[in-house]
């Protein structure tokens, strides 16, 4: 991926970051592609290459169809996130926190790589949940994912809850599933507290999360979008940096 961002614009955004006191970041799947986790809608995205994969992410299909659940468990077992390490993009955001500038990090990602990189868990707002936990759809039990994956490895194609026999699912928000109201409200609240809002690696097509951009705009926060492809909010941004996150973020987040 080429660095399409103009050096003057990069310098200007870096100066904005230096001046900012409450940076709010919204990250999406694009920040984790350099860690080997494909996004959904980018050129190499899971759905771009295989539109049927979306079915596995739809709650109604998952709950109704054991075949869909079995396929989902196979896909969880093989997920690249288990081997993935944070990349320079994640680390740049840790640098922003160490400089005392990061007010909050709203993420649509479910891979926990921001926390693995070193961002404080209490600053990370996971609007779409986490794939590292599992939840029972019957009794609400929640626990770590790995022991359940171990059951799949040992031959249970569709493991059920050991407490109530209910359907188990990763603690992520599927299509057709409601967001957790307190979590999305907190995301919108921090967006309204930003003086600089940095959208990174998201196509900004998923609502209500994408509404964090206009929420930040409504309090006159500067809006900066870092993404390889255009987004529907480019026209309201103060700067759009089209290019590689791994090249751009270290340049705009660094101190000095
Ligand atoms: P998306 O797939 O809709 O968009 C990702 C965007 O990032 C694309 O526009 C792509 O061009 C851009 N991009 C990819 N790699 C890049 C790079 N190295 N540099 C610059 N830009 C890059 O992703 P989204 O908006 O986050 O929405 C997808 C949903 O899928 C999210 O809600 C999330 O829950 C889920 N998801 C999560 C992960 C993860 O946790 N890592 C991975 C895939 C999907």
Please, could you describe this protein's structure?
This protein folds into 2 domains: 1-37 and 86-128 and 180-256, Rossmann fold (3-Layer(aba) Sandwich), CATH 3.40.50; 47-83 and 130-172, SIR2/SIRT2 'Small Domain' (2-Layer Sandwich). The strands form 2 sheets. Strands 3-2-1-7-8-9 form a 6-stranded parallel beta sheet, with helices on both faces. The chain has a 3-stranded antiparallel beta sheet with strand order 5-4-6. It has helices at residues 7-19, 46-49, 59-64, 66-77, 88-98, 113-117, 145-153, 181-192, 212-218, 245-253, and strands spanning 23-27, 102-107, 124-126, 129-136, 142-144, 168-172, 196-200, 222-226, 239-241. The radius of gyration is 19 Å and the shape is elongated. With 256 residues, it is α/β, with parallel strands linked by helices. Helix 1 packs across helix 10, helix 5 (88-98) runs parallel beside helix 10 and helix 8 (181-192) runs parallel beside helix 9 (212-218).
């Amino acid at each position: 991926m080429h660095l399409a961002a103009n050096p003057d614009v990069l310098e200007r955004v870096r100066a904005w970051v230096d001046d900012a006191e409450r940076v709010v970041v919204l990250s999406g799947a694009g920040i984790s592609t350099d860690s080997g986790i494909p996004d959904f809608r980018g050129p190499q995205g899971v759905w771009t290459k295989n539109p049927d994969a979306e079915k596995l992410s739809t709650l109604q299909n998952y709950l109704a169809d054991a075949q869909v659940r079995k396929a989902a468990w196979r896909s969880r077992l093989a997920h690249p996130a288990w081997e993935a390490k944070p990349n320079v993009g994640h680390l740049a955001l840790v640098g922003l926190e160490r400089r005392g500038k990061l007010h909050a990090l709203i993420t649509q990602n479910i891979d926990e790589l921001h926390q693995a990189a070193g961002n404080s868990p209490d600053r990370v707002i996971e609007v779409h949940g986490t794939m590292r936990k599992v939840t029972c759809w019957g009794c609400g039990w929640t626990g770590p994912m790995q022991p359940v994956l171990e059951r799949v490895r040992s031959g249970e194609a569709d493991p059920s809850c050991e407490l109530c026999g209910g359907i188990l699912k990763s603690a992520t928000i599927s299509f057709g599933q409601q967001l957790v109201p307190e979590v999305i409200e907190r995301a919108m609240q921090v967006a309204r507290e930003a003086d600089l809002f940095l959208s990174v690696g998201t196509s900004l097509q998923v609502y209500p999360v994408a509404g964090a951009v206009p929420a930040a705009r409504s309090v006159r926060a500067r809006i900066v979008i870092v993404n390889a492809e255009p987004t529907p909010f480019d026209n309201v941004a103060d700067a759009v940096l089209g290019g590689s996150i791994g090249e751009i973020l270290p340049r705009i987040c660094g101190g000095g």
